[in-house]
Amino acid sequence: MLMMQFSAQSDVPPMDTWTPDEVKAHIEFMHEVNQRLTETGELVGGEGLAAPDQARIVRAGGGAPVVTDGPYPETKEFLVGFWVIECESLERATERAAYISAAPGPGGAPLNMPIEVRQVLSGPPEEL
């Protein structure tokens, strides 16, 4: 799984400060990524996610859920999108992550956003 994260501590400006053309170029790049992954048979699924101000946190609490709606001012990092891919190796997944990290941002410059690579488990670890 590849997870694209936004961090307030990075040099990447929030997308709501980008021009419409910069947003369009970024989204077109993501469509290209999805098409390439589909063509190679590596794409299992993936989505872009709404911003934290549109999120809801739910916790169990005394028989009724405790719901907190966004925005969350303490949020400094958040997941902006993910891909579930099936690759032949960790190296291949790393190559894909590096390519996605260089998605265009303001002025067309590569964002170099952090992309977290994790294996999707098919069961509990063997030592359990």
TrEMBL record:
SUPFAM superfamilies: Dimeric alpha+beta barrel
YCII-related domain: residues covered: 21-100
PANTHER family: BLL7171 PROTEIN, BLL7171 PROTEIN-RELATED
Sequence similarity: Belongs to the YciI family.
Name under which the protein is recorded: YCII-related domain-containing protein
